[in-house]
């Protein structure tokens, strides 16, 4: 009864709302960076898929065949390997940013019986460090991503795909 209501009161506070928004932002970082960390993939021509794809699109779609298809697949895999380190780094950062507010919400909802008056100062300091380090982290992320997209692999891949 009243114990559950007291625990739920924290979730209605402004501090808890901010922490829940932090959780959502960290999840968004994880989801967006996991797109680049997905399968190595590579080009797969529709005829190679077989079945309905081949019959439905086989005549109208002139994808890559033979050596071009193999080259497209190699370029896609090399492009994936170029993006992989920065995507993994973004996932690590997103995971670290996810843990902190989740722990704070859990400790507050469970009402852990410890009192440490300087905790708010420590929490504030951590938030300031996170806020200040976000700008250089974003610069590094975008700079690394830009270097991937201006690489010779990406340019060659782009030219190959524009030919079709």
Q: Your description of this structure?
A:
This protein has 164 residues and is mainly α. It has one domain. Helices cover 80% and strands 0% of the residues. The chain contains seven helices and no strands. The chain has helices spanning 2-11, 14-36, 46-49, 51-57, 66-110, 119-149, 152-162. The chain starts with a helix and ends with a helix.
Nutshell version of this structure?
It contains seven helices and no strands. By secondary structure, the protein is mostly helical. It has one domain.
Reading the helices and strands in chain order gives HHHHHHH
Radius of gyration of CA atoms, rounded to a whole number: 24 Å
Strand content: under 5%
Low-confidence stretches: 53-61
Any idea what the shape is? elongated
Structural class by SSE content: mainly alpha
Please count the beta strands (DSSP E, at least 2 residues each).
0
Determine the mean pLDDT: 80
Features:
MALD3 protein; MARVEL_domain_protein_3; 0% strand; mainly alpha; 7 helices; 80% helix; elongated; 164 residues; transmembrane
């Amino acid at each position: 009864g009243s114990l559950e209501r007291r625990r739920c009161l924290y979730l209605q506070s402004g501090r808890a709302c901010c922490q829940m928004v932090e959780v959502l932002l960290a999840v968004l970082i994880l989801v967006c960076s996991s797109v680049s960390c997905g399968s190595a993939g590579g080009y797969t021509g529709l005829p190679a898929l077989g079945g309905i794809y081949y019959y439905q699109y086989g005549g109208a779609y002139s994808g890559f065949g033979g050596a071009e298809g193999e080259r497209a697949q190699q370029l896609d895999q090399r492009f994936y390997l170029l993006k992989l380190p920065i995507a993994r780094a973004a996932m690590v950062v997103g995971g670290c940013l996810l843990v902190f507010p989740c722990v704070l919400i859990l400790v507050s909802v469970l009402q852990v019986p410890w009192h440490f008056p300087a905790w708010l100062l420590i929490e504030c300091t951590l938030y300031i460090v996170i806020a200040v380090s976000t700008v250089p982290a974003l610069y590094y992320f975008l700079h690394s991503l830009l270097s991937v997209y201006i690489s010779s692999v990406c340019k060659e891949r782009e030219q190959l795909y524009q030919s079709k």
